[in-house]
Amino acid sequence: MTPTKTVAKAKPNSATRAGTSGKASKGFSAEEKAAARARIQELKAEAARADGELELLAAIARMQEPDRAMAKKIHALIKAAAPVLAPKTWYGMPAYTRDGNVICFFQNAGKFKVRYQTLGFSDKANLDDGGMWPNSYALTKLTATEEAKITALVEKAVR
User: 144-157 and 67-81 are packed helices; what angle lies between their axes, rounded to 10 degrees?
Assistant: First the structure.
């Protein structure tokens, strides 16, 4: 009988992500990691059947001004325009769902250190308008005009 040779397995090279610049990515930013951790907590809370609106209001309370004031107003507008939507948090942000699907969300400027807040809509929102339409809106202030636009968008999103 011939002796068998042991073959050492090659160790796989560790993967590095490269962006369009060709340089290796350093991975997720601290803000992205925090959002992922928040999402894990949300999933655990959902599993324990926590009240989504309480979680949402707590997330708003943790925001700095002027994000907090705008989030409170957006929350009131969405609840009034579409009572069928269930409030919850999604990646640490206030969000509103229908049948378990996120329809719209509010992203505060402080979360990702940007200059404006964002009202965003998912692909489940019925905002289709021809071959192209916006699915997020930058917010710097809320006047009666912006409030009317938000109300109309949310109403359209749940039709």
Answer: 50
pTM value?
Answer: 0.71
Q: Are 122 and 85 in contact (CB under 8 A)?
A: no
Per-residue pLDDT, 26: 81
Q: Which two tokens stand for residue 115?
A: 């200059």
Q: How far apart are CA 26 and CA 8, in angstroms?
A: 31
> Does 16 have pLDDT greater than 60?
no
Q: Is residue 113 in a domain?
A: yes
Contact partners, residue 157, CB within 8 Å, separation at least 6: 82, 103, 104, 121, 125, 126, 127
Structure tokens at 139: 């917010």
The answer to whether position 1 is within a domain reads: no
